[in-house]
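Thread: "does anyone have the structure for this chain?"

Original post by V.I.:
We have the sequence but no experimental structure in hand. Need at least a predicted one for the grant figures.
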Amino acid sequence: MKAARLSRATARLAVGAAVPVLLLAGLTACSSADGADTVSASSGTASGSSTTATPASTAPVAQGPIGAGCDVFPAAGPGSAAAIATVPVGIAVSTVPQLSTVTQAIIAANLADVVNTREDVTVLAPSDAAFASLGPDVVPGLLADVPRLTTLLTHHVVPGRLTPDQLVGEHTTLNGDSITVTGPAASPTISADQTVPAAAAATVVCGGVPTVNATLYVIDQVLAPAG
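Reply from O.Q.:
Generated one for you, tokens below.
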């Protein structure tokens, strides 16, 4: 059952959250000998974010949620906006039924520590429908290709907790490339040429939703890293 799979995924991501790691840019996922999720971090500073990004030390400003599809989050209980505000973002997405594929991707890429311990970021999480639109053969191959998967996932994370107003603009991702979000702030979009299918613009289904360490936006397309 899907609920059981989400429960197991939540447990695996929670284990990653229990081991704090200082995470900087140039993040490299690696697998330990026993298969546990581990992440190493290179030295140096994070790639610069856009001028619109909130500094890492600045608390988020309440300005959400926004989007026409906020029923993606249950009204109450696990996965609700109130519940995910109390946990790190990796655990948060694992409790939302329509984010099960990105949860699998985080686990497959050994990025649990990254998403759960990196402070003050904005996560653009593709919905299950976004991954499904890539076709039935794409996701299994992607989950099996850890370097490609890591690049893809870090492209969906931007430094700073961005409000909807701040999300509109150009931003440098944790992958070191950029995304450009256009307004209005109540319904931000990312142009089709920045998505994997390159067929339709990505829209924010629901966003501006806080977690312990991040601000979460659910989007309806998978974004394409540079190159």
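V.I.: this helps a lot. The longest helix spans residues 2-17.
O.Q.: and The chain is about 30% helix and 20% strand.
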